[in-house]
């Protein structure tokens, strides 16, 4: 297993700048998710690590060795494709054994390893079946088997659960994570599904328009988004944004929102007068008659244990997560308060999060 | 009558529709088979039966057509024939009954062998080249790809006769005229455009992930092509091979103009089989019957692939 270090990686297609100066490090044994909307460059980044695309600029190091321009076959990595890419003209056993055949490993040894991998993935009973008749989850296991049978330096997975139905996906998320814990394999996993990323990853790299916006643990990504995009992309429903104008002194503990003061985590940098955005997670909105923002209830979505209440305010529609047993009437006038220690402030023009005490909490766990 | 019997499916044709469709298919098959059946029947007729009017449906079968096809004969006086020993086989017997003796083998076998070599040779070459270039066009960013593909296709837009004379002059200059190699190259160049276009469609449908997986697993691109792409393209390759073979096997115009002795194929040879006093129709029919055999055998052998391939990948999973 190996550490993957990606430095200032750039990739341009004819008229499309797919990846812009992406840099990150995946430590030995770590599970990194590349997360982002479609077209954000996450798959291109993964394919460059695999050697299926050559970067326009930048370097890729596997265990310190520069492999940027190496052929895919010379990198000793394993790749799991979204559509599995099982060879249709081979049965399960030959599919899993195929990488060993490429390496010229003897038939007896290869078969021993195939059988062992099949046992780990619980597909021993399928070994002599053709791959065409397999169910989605089993196909995915065969694809995983083909990846792990070789004991490569790292696993690269491109939305491997994207083609499965919801139920099977839930089960495979847990299996994949368990498999990762068992093998301790360095893994880079591409997905557009934040739930998958949150459930599996040690670290998440959020990408947008070819740029890595934030690399952090799932908890930090959620609690301390580094940019407006991350705050908006992560969370369902996403973070509420309240635009306001103002300036900020280092150490300031409140901002002026309309004609009310809102307590925020103490700022750690100063900002001149400008357009700012206050970010509030729906679960950090509380209903209070003395609240800093007033509005009318527009509607609510019942989710079982909680409900999402949409309130129309002068800052736009805000969503609040509230216990399911409280009832709201449409059109009811309500006041909203925010939990002060969890608020984020963003610079509207750059989308960057303003450094506050919140981020220091992150640095020290 | 129960409800289950009166209910009808919206997707399954009703029994009457089935019967109608079935009889139309049979009728069409009969109509298209008539010329073939007539040729096969004629090949077993005697020369007199072959040209009799009204045409004879019932006749005494004779192998004279096949004998005349494979032999050349010379006319002799009955006195001379009586001085010869016993007839050398069936054909000699038939010839003697018409006051002739077998003088030697005809040119049909060498012409047939030429056809086999040229048709299969050019098919193998066209499919091999076509597969490689189709793969290149399908997988790589080729500059001017669309223009090149159109250019390749455009070689098919002219009727062969339009280019036959320039090719004849070229071939005469470089010494390829009336050679098997020349004909193989010519048919290959005509077929390769068809092969590229057909095979590109098939290869486009094979997801690249298969080769990428193989390349990550340690194969070079060429190995991945051979081990992973080719097995999945067999359907398309088989269909393409049959189309190429049918063209090369039946081609007439180029063969008439560019071959005479050495490399003449069967199609220009068959219509000029002359018997005594004009066209020897049973021999022509016999030659045609035998000429059909290789294509039928080849098609039947590849039938399994062809059935899926003939839809040009439309229903391929």
Textual characterization of the structure:
The complex is a heterodimer of chains A (365) and B (317). By secondary structure, chain A is α+β, with helices and mostly antiparallel strands. Chain A has nine helices and 20 strands. With 317 residues, chain B is mostly helical. Helices cover 68% and strands 5% of the residues of chain B. Chain B has helices at 3-6, 15-43, 47-50, 64-70, 78-83, 89-97, 108-139, 145-154, 160-174, 180-204, 209-216, 221-250, 253-258, 266-269, 281-301, 303-309; strands at residues 71-75, 100-105, 274-275, 278-279. In chain B, a hairpin with a 2-residue loop joins strand 3 (274-275) and strand 4. The longest helix of chain B has 32 residues, at 108-139.
Concise account of the structure shown:
The complex is a heterodimer of chains A (365) and B (317). Chain A has 365 residues and is of the alpha+beta class.
Largest sheet of chain A: 6 strands, mixed
Write the H/E string of chain B, N to C.
HHHHEHHEHHHHHHHHEEHH
Low-confidence stretches of chain A: none
User: What number is the mean pLDDT of chain A?
Assistant: 90
What are the salient characteristics of this protein?
heterodimer, A: 365 residues, six-stranded mixed sheet, 25% helix, 35% strand, B: 317 residues, mainly alpha, two-stranded antiparallel ribbon, 16 helices, 4 strands, globular
Give the SSE layout.
The complex is a heterodimer of chains A (365) and B (317).
Chain A: E1 4-13, E2 16-26, E3 31-35, H1 42-50, E4 57-62, E5 65-66, E6 77-80, H2 92-103, H3 107-120, H4 136-148, E7 154-158, H5 166-183, E8 187-191, H6 194-200, E9 203-208, E10 211-216, H7 218-223, H8 228-233, E11 240-248, E12 254-257, E13 260-263, E14 271-280, E15 285-287, E16 293-302, E17 306-313, E18 316-323, E19 333-338, E20 344-347, H9 357-363
Parallel strand pairs in A: 3-8, 3-9, 6-7, 7-8
Antiparallel strand pairs in A: 1-2, 1-4, 4-5, 9-10, 11-14, 12-13, 14-20, 15-19, 16-17, 16-19, 17-18
Helix pairs in contact in A: 2-3, 2-4
Chain B: H1 3-6, H2 15-43, H3 47-50, H4 64-70, E1 71-75, H5 78-83, H6 89-97, E2 100-105, H7 108-139, H8 145-154, H9 160-174, H10 180-204, H11 209-216, H12 221-250, H13 253-258, H14 266-269, E3 274-275, E4 278-279, H15 281-301, H16 303-309
Antiparallel strand pairs in B: 1-2, 3-4
Helix pairs in contact in B: 2-15, 4-15, 7-10, 7-12, 8-10, 10-12, 11-12, 12-16
């Amino acid at each position: 297993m190996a550490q993957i270090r990606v430095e200032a990686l750039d990739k341009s297609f004819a008229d499309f700048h797919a990846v812009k100066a992406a840099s990150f490090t995946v430590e030995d044994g770590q599970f990194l998710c590349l997360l982002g909307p479609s077209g954000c460059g996450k798959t291109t980044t993964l394919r460059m690590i695999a050697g299926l695309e050559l970067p326009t600029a930048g370097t890729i190091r596997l265990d310190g060795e520069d492999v940027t321009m190496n052929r895919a076959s010379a990198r000793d990595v394993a790749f799991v494709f979204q559509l599995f890419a099982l060879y249709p003209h081979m049965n399960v056993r030959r599919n899993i054994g195929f990488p060993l055949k490429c390496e010229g490993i003897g038939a007896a040894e290869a078969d021993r390893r195939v059988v062992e991998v099949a046992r780990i993935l619980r597909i021993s009973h399928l070994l002599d079946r053709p791959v065409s008749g397999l169910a989605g989850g089993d196909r995915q296991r065969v694809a995983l088997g083909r990846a792990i049978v070789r004991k490569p330096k790292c696993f690269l997975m491109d939305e491997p659960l994207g083609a499965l139905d919801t139920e099977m996906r839930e089960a495979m998320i847990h299996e994949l994570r368990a498999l990762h814990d068992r093998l301790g394999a360095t893994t880079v996993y591409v997905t557009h599904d934040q739930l998958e990323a949150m459930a599996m990853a040690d670290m998440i790299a959020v990408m947008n328009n070819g740029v890595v916006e934030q690399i952090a643990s799932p908890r930090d990504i959620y609690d301390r988004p580094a940019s407006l995009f991350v705050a908006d992309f992560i969370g369902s429903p996403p973070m509420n944004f309240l635009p306001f104008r103002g300036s900020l002194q280092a150490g300031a503990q409140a901002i002026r929102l309309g004609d009310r003061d809102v307590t925020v985590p103490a700022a750690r940098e100063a900002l001149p007068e400008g357009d700012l955005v206050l970010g509030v997670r729906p679960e950090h909105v509380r209903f209070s008659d003395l609240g800093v923002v007033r509005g009318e209830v527009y509607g609510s979505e019942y989710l079982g244990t909680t409900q999402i209440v949409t309130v129309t305010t002068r800052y736009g529609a805000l969503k609040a997560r509230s216990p399911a047993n409280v009832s709201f009437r449409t059109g009811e006038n309500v006041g909203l308060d925010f939990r002060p220690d969890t608020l984020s402030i963003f610079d509207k023009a750059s989308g960057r999060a303003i450094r506050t005490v919140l981020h220091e909490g992150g640095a020290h766990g | 009558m129960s409800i289950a019997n009166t209910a009808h499916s919206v997707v399954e044709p009703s029994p009457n529709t089935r019967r109608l469709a079935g009889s139309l298919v049979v009728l069409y098959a009969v109509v298209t088979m008539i010329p073939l059946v007539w040729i096969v029947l004629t090949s077993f007729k005697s020369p007199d039966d072959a040209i009799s009017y009204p045409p004879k449906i019932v006749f005494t079968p004779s192998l004279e057509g096949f004998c005349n096809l494979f032999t050349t004969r010379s006319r002799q006086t009955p006195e001379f024939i009586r001085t010869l020993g016993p007839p050398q086989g069936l054909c000699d017997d038939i010839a003697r009954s018409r006051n002739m003796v077998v003088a030697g083998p005809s040119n049909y076998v060498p012409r047939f062998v030429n056809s086999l070599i040229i048709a299969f040779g050019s098919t193998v070459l066209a499919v091999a080249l076509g597969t490689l270039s189709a793969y290149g066009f399908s997988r790589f960013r080729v500059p001017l790809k669309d223009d090149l593909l159109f250019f390749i296709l455009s070689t098919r837009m002219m009727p062969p006769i339009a280019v036959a004379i320039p090719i004849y002059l070229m071939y005469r200059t470089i010494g390829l005229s009336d050679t098997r190699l020349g004909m193989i190259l010519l048919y290959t160049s005509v077929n390769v455009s068809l092969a590229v276009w057909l095979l590109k469609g098939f290869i486009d449908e094979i997801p690249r992930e298969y080769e990428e997986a193989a390349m990550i697993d340690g194969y070079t691109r060429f190995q991945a092509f051979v081990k992973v792409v080719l097995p999945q393209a067999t359907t398309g390759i088989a269909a393409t091979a049959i189309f190429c073979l049918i063209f090369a096997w039946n081609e007439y115009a180029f063969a008439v103009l560019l071959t005479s002795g050495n490399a003449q194929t069967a199609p220009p040879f068959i219509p000029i089989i002359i018997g005594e006093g004009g066209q020897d129709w049973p021999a022509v029919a016999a030659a045609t019957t035998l000429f059909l055999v290789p294509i039928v055998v080849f098609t039947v052998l590849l039938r399994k692939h062809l059935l899926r391939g003939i839809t040009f990948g439309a229903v391929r999973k």
